[in-house]
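for the writeup, i need someone to sanity check this before i put it in the appendix. the sequnce is what the collaborator sent (i think, or maybe the updated version? ugh). structure was predicted straight from it, no edits. if anything looks off just tell me and ill rerun, i have time this weekend
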Amino acid sequence: MSDDISVLIGGKAGDGINQAGLLIARLLNQLGRRLYLYIDYPSLIRGGHNFALIRAADKKIATHRDEIDFLLALNQDAVDLHKKKLKKQTCLIYDSDVIKDRPDIFPNSIGLPLTKIIKEAKAPVITRNSCLIGGFCKAAGIDWDILEKVFRKSIPKETELNLKLARQGYDQAKESVKIQPGSQKSLPILTGNEAIGLGLVQAGLQAYVAYPMTPATSILHFLAQQAEKFYLKVIHPENEISVILMALGFAYTGQRVAVGTSGGGFCLMTEGLSLSGVAELPVVVVLSQRPGPSTGLPTYTAQSELNFALNAGHGDFTRLVVAPGDIEEAYYWSAVSLNLSWKYQIPVIILVDKALSEGGYSFDIDSVGKVQAEPALSWDGKNLYQRYLDTTDGISPLVSVPDKNAVVKVNSYEHDEAGITIEDPQRTIQMNDKRQRKEKSLIKALEKYSTVSVGGNEKSDQALVCWGSNKGVCTEVAEQLGLKVIQPVVLNPFPVRQYQEALKGVKKIICVENNVAGQLARLLNQYGFPVDEKILKYDGRSFSLEELAGRVKGKLS
């Protein structure tokens, strides 16, 4: 069996495909492999076709392959819609009570009467996937003890029933191809949204406010589950306008706060974002992208909101926009974002996408850099407190209410240093200049961070330039083809010097993005860094390894 294994489990919405995919990932994780989990589902509560792709390898991975080694099918669609992914060695495990039309050319087919088994056990229909996973473990040569361990840890309700059904699937299947154990230690499997939540907590998050919107919703669910453990306030208001205003209220009282949303919700937050800019109230916005315009494809992925994140809001104010590219960067830059938001008293946007937010990854905390403390400027208490004191770097001393020694006045109207409304020209210029000086200070501070990631063959004169979740697939393609990979993590203020350093020796740039307009390519051009070729994908799906490799080969010199 190859060291690189792909498993697909498919069924309809309501069959528990996402949870089943995570269980399979955890099983393969016990074999000492690195994992990537890709989930695909339509915007339907029932029906439609859901599937999860689980890939396991002996090295870090963050993308899926087209070909699969095991197909676990709960209905006919799971066979019919994925025929092109099958190869002659693929092991097909299916519900023989439901699937009558299967590809007979596959000698490794294993039919299990899943519907009959659960009916006799008087078990819920959703438990078919436990029985199917049992059959998979037998077919893949995974010991029963490993399955039992994973099930007991992962299934808190009706554990014994699920184990009983899994055992029946295990006993009725046959070993097809044994997956050999890898040599690496098991790592936790986290989604990108879970890593973002943990990174925010690491930096002292005290409140999280959000209205559910795919693909950011699971941050809300995850932090709500962890709220008691981390002493968090997790709130679900009535809409996104309430979300951003409530968050700014938390910031006014000194509570470190973050919000999460997608494009449509962020639209409603933009006036509040401008309020954050003028009132100098720190807030972190997790903006997880999906295809637009409008509702678009609400459960699929895209990178089409870069321009929006860079320009949202009215008026000019300093903002930080970061786009982590993998699970470790999601954790690290979420913590950094919260720290820098409070130091500079600015809004920070963490720009991710559905692929990273909902994808599952092996998380290596030991590879994450240490998050540096970024303390806010404090008031010495000696002079009369001025909330917007004009300073050389634009950062005013931060005092939160209540403080018996200070009047803390914040204002959405243009104001003077004390926060009193003004309209005269000179003080208007003064306060605008003060706020703009923050950006210069921020640019200087970001020099101590690695704001541009470089990988692949660093000596190559041809480079793939990407951002966000495309880091994983670009890195793997670059390793295959001997190319360099350049990934700006900070997109505003753009890290010009570090990007110039990354470009040294590069003669040809191929920009890879999940949008129709080439938004990163446009941004690079604005800073005098034109790209030579663009590879764009905008069907709501991520690049597969084979797809991107083929398209890159067509662009190489």
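The first strand starts at residue 5 and ends at 13. The mean pLDDT is 95.
thx in advance!!
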